Amino acid sequence: MSSNSIQSMTTPVEYKRGRSKADDWDRIQLCAQAMALEEMLNTAVPEGALFYGKPRRRERVALDAGLRDKTRDLARAARMMLEHGQTPAPEPGPKCHHCSLREICVPDSTSASAYLHRMLD
Description:
- The chain is an alpha+beta fold and 121 residues long.
- It has helices at 3-9, 25-41, 65-83, 102-105, 112-120; strands spanning 13-16, 47-52, 57-62.
């Protein structure tokens, strides 16, 4: 397969169960995946798509400079937390009910320290 063939078909699609959201988290995840593909395949990925299961619609996402900058900034912040052994405080909300990490995150606890005390007692 030629390099041109790879370039013409490199469009990441992220599948989500629910609906499109007002915030950028889904678009940022898609952008991070596209940036990884660009690095791995040495090709440009100018757009991707989000497929939402509830409306069964595909949403095209332009991977523009603003979204890429936001994605890089969040990646840098995550790396800094990892390097410093920090864990961000949970932000409980409706999203927690369907999260696969709910049991690990314990979003309803007041703090990690309170959680550890409960687990050790």
